[in-house]
Design brief:
Pfam families: CYTH (PF01928). This is Adenylate cyclase. InterPro entries: CYTH-like_dom_sf (IPR033469), CYTH_domain (IPR023577), YgiF (IPR039013). The structure is a single chain. By secondary structure, the protein is of the alpha+beta class. It folds into two domains: 202 residues, Hypothetical Protein Pfu-838710-001 (Beta Barrel), CATH 2.40.320.10; 126 residues. The chain is built from twelve helices and nine strands. Strands 1-5-4-3-2-6-7-8 form an eight-stranded antiparallel beta barrel. Helix 10 crosses helix 12. The mean pLDDT is 92.
Length: 347
């Protein structure tokens, strides 16, 4: 068993060619870059038992090699996930069910259930790989950077795929955030908490509900506020993506989530004192959302005026795809939360 720690960043295909020109890929290179063509077939039962158990199973073709991989559910935020994975080299593109049993949740260890596994969807893409390394105050680190460009296929449906994966091979998690933030300063990326498998299921018709945030008090004010920041960070990038796709309901949810996030950040004393730049940047984003949303308070205005405001608001939100602010904000907040968790762990 291995543990995979990676941070995923989405970007528009039009910016993918700029990835190779990032100075860090040359300045921090510790091995020659590589190119691979990968075909991945994901398996599940007709009732999606693996998906419901938050498990992913695939066969990957990498050149003339076949690899069977089982992944558990990931934990993390701001595009970063930590999860367990098991890999086995196979002589052909078929499942060996005997390899799975001891690693599956108890609910999936059923011969009849496993016998019903069948292809559910595919993710096929070209992968460009770079290996970066260095040393800082926290020690030596090594990160694999992968640019994936291709598509996800489910029956006759297609979804374009264009993303960056930064996988930690050695060293502290901070190295991932530092590299990702440097990329986000130069390219308009977005954080992706959804894995390729999750997007494959969505394409196959299993939609994930739009996340909503409900504040809760768990007995400690500081811990409750930190939990609220975590919940908001999981929600607002997804809500923003839905807004960009034209979901007006998501716009109201996004406005509320950003309000909750700002209140939480400003109510945490050390954050309010030391993270004023982060807070002011969120205020900028909230102001853009207000411009796109708050005209709805003027229901008395003519329909033509309201439509003009709606169109202008959608254009404003869609323009955020081409700005670096959202990606930097999500990553900086994710790094802040990891630092808080690390401080709590070390006492």
């Amino acid at each position: 068993m291995g543990s995979e720690t990676e941070l995923k960043l989405g970007l528009l295909p039009e910016y993918s060619e700029e990835v190779a020109t990032l100075p860090m890929l040359e300045q921090l290179a510790c091995a020659p870059s590589q190119h691979r063509t990968l075909r991945n077939v994901y398996y599940d039962t007709p009732e999606q038992h693996l998906h419901r158990a938050r498990v992913a199973l695939r066969i990957r073709q990498d050149g003339d090699r076949y690899i069977q991989t089982l992944k558990s559910a990931g934990n993390g935020q701001a595009g970063l996930s930590v999860r367990n994975e098991w890999e086995w080299v196979r002589p052909e593109p078929s499942l060996d069910l005997a390899l799975l049993t001891e690693h599956l949740p108890e609910s999936l260890r059923d011969e009849v259930l496993l016998a019903s596994l069948a292809p559910a969807f595919e993710t096929n893409f070209e992968r460009q790989l770079w290996w970066l390394g260095g040393e800082d105050d926290a020690g030596t680190w090594k990160v694999e950077v992968a640019l994936d460009r291709g598509e996800i296929r489910a029956a006759d449906k297609r979804m374009p795929l264009c993303e960056l994966e930064l996988e930690l091979k050695a060293g502290p998690t901070d190295a991932l955030f530092h590299l990702a933030l440097e990329i986000a300063r130069q390219l308009p990326v977005r954080v992706c908490d959804a894995s390729k498998a999750q997007r494959g299921y969505q394409l196959a018709g299993i939609d994930a509900p739009l996340p909503e945030v409900t504040p809760r008090f768990d007995g400690d004010a500081v811990l409750s506020l930190v939990a609220l920041v975590e919940a908001c960070l999981k929600a607002w990038p997804v809500q923003l993506e839905a807004v960009i796709a034209g979901d007006e309901q998501a716009l109201a949810s996004l406005a509320r989530t950003l309000d909750l996030l700002l209140v939480a950040l400003e109510s945490l004393p050390e954050v309010a004192e030391h993270c004023q730049v982060l807070i002011s940047q969120y205020q900028r984003l909230r102001a853009d959302v207000a411009r796109a949303h708050d005209w709805r308070l003027l229901e008395c205005m003519p329909k033509a005026w309201q439509q003009a405001q709606r169109d202008a608001g959608l254009k404003l939100m869609q323009g955020l795809q081409h700005k670096t602010l959202p990606g930097q904000l999500a990553l900086a907040t994710g790094e802040l939360l990891w630092q808080i968790a690390d401080d709590e762990a070390t006492g």
